[in-house]
Design a protein that fits this description.
single chain; 11 helices
């Protein structure tokens, strides 16, 4: 993530271990039987966000050695970051569809809710080539020592609100009280990253959600 290769790897390993442990508890404990699928889908959402640590660790590995970063790292980070709303929506919507009769009885609600993730994914696809030309890697800039998810500073900046709305459209499909808990976790970590750091916020946020799935045990 934004600090070093070692911390990127540690964040990914610790977060993944937490997600596996929480998934095992959710799968086995009778308390979660009725909401098992939606909780597992939400764990998938947080795990996908953690995958950003992989290209970020690779970026640090080459940057620390003053070597050219492999060209696949920049697009990999781009799509792992910007497909987060789509993955969250597909996973949670599928789980809710399979386990909750109300969504199957109201397919229009599903179509309307899907609008934000679809629109954001289209925007990401449209701006992909321009974003790759803006900067060849995630290297920190002289003004910021954190990794630079440069598309949020340039090409995708006008779509930040749509990104937030797209993730929330997935979370709000969850049954109560998890829709409120996960909304608080998502917005709370995002607000904290913005409050504490003046740059590299996207990278910081992807690190800060490593323990997020613990909230699914509530």
């Amino acid at each position: 993530m934004c600090f070093s290769k070692r911390e990127s790897i540690a964040s990914f390993a610790i977060g993944t271990a937490i997600n596996i442990a929480v998934a095992a508890i959710v799968w086995q404990h009778p308390r979660y039987r009725a909401t098992r699928l939606v909780r597992l889908a939400t764990i998938l959402m947080w795990q996908f966000a953690l995958l950003m640590q992989i290209p970020e660790a690779v970026q640090w590995h080459y940057a620390d050695r003053s070597k050219t970063v492999p060209p696949a790292v920049n697009p990999a980070a781009y799509w792992l970051n910007l497909l987060q709303p789509a993955v969250a929506f597909v996973g949670i919507a599928t789980a809710v569809w399979l386990s909750s009769p109300w969504l199957r009885a109201a397919p229009v609600a599903l179509v309307v809710t899907a609008a934000c993730p679809v629109l954001f994914t289209v925007a990401a696809a449209v701006h992909f080539r321009a974003s790759m030309r803006t900067q060849p890697d995630l290297a920190p800039s002289p003004a910021c020592t954190h990794l630079n998810l440069h598309w949020w500073r340039h090409n995708l900046r006008p779509f930040l609100g749509l990104y937030l709305a797209a993730v929330l459209s997935a979370i709000l499909l969850l049954p109560a009280p998890q829709r409120y808990i996960q909304t608080a976790v998502f917005l709370g970590t995002f607000a904290l990253a913005n409050a504490v750091y003046s740059c590299g916020v996207g990278s910081v946020w992807c690190w800060s959600i490593a323990p997020a799935s613990l909230s699914l045990l509530l």
